[in-house]
Amino acid sequence: MEKNRIRHYLAVAASAFIFLVFGVWELINPQYWAGFVPASLFNFNPTILIIVHGIILTLLGVWLITGKWLRVAAIAGTLVMAQIVLSLIVSSGFSDLVVRDFTIMLFVLSLAFEEK
Question: Where are the domains of the chain?
Answer without folding.
Answer: 3-111
